[in-house]
Design goal:
There is one protein chain. 0% of the residues lie in helices and 50% in strands. By secondary structure, the protein is mainly beta. Strands 1, 2, 3, 4, 5, 6, 7 and 8 form an 8-stranded antiparallel beta sheet that branches. The chain is globular, with a radius of gyration of 14 Å.
């Protein structure tokens, strides 16, 4: 098993997979495959992550706290339990006005059919 991935075939409590670290953004892979990735990420208050522009949609679900996700210059404020899709090929910024945790899911296959 990749030491960066969570243990398979074991029930998980999503919010407990990762901890907050002061003044940090922490990322842990849930699954990492050539066809896509699922990551859980924690952001401490005040952290800003300028997202990379990627050629795939990114489904983001907030599992703890509140997040500001800026997509092509438009701010979206999400609370625990809310989600958003960051469209492929768009600029984005993830901003922690207060700390939050999220799950990010990117599926890389299937775009050839679109």
């Amino acid at each position: 098993m990749d030491n960066n991935e969570v243990e398979k075939a074991k029930a998980l409590i999503n919010v407990d997979i990762i901890e907050y670290v002061p003044d940090s953004v922490v990322n842990k892979a849930i699954l990492k495959k050539t066809t896509g990735n699922i990551n859980v990420v924690s952001f401490d208050t005040g952290e800003v992550f300028p997202g990379k522009i990627i050629p795939f949609d990114n489904f983001v679900e907030i599992i703890d706290g509140k997040a500001e996700i800026v997509i092509d210059g438009i701010s979206n404020f999400l609370d625990t339990g809310q989600s958003i899709i960051i469209p492929a090929h768009t600029s984005n910024i993830l901003r922690a006005n207060e700390r939050f945790k999220m799950i990010s899911t990117v599926i890389k296959c299937g775009y050839e059919d679109a």
